[in-house]
Amino acid sequence: MTMGTCLYRNTSNQMVVLRCIGPEAFFQEKVIFPFEDWLFRCPPHSRVDIWTHGPTGAEQLDSIHSEELLLSTKVVAPAWGPAKGNPSASAFPYDWPVSC
Fold it and tell me: What is the DSSP string of 28-90?
């Protein structure tokens, strides 16, 4: 299954839950703190739902197509990035902070 790298930025002042639902029973869920960025991989044509906790329980804030969050293929790892085979290196080939 081909996967694309997406970036979601929580610009709200509250925690949200990101749920990515894709083809072939693909599913992932992540709590994202206020002003946090999250890089994740998902198959094309996935749906990204953003949820929060409101006065009456869980509330869906947004539903986004993963293509809208897809990073450009022109983004490349810098030459000074993590070396191959480094077990402490990130699972993503980018060397910038994921959280701000």
Answer: EEEEE-TT-EEEEEE-TT-EEEEEEEETTEEEEEEEEEGGGTBPPTT----TTSPPTT-TTS-
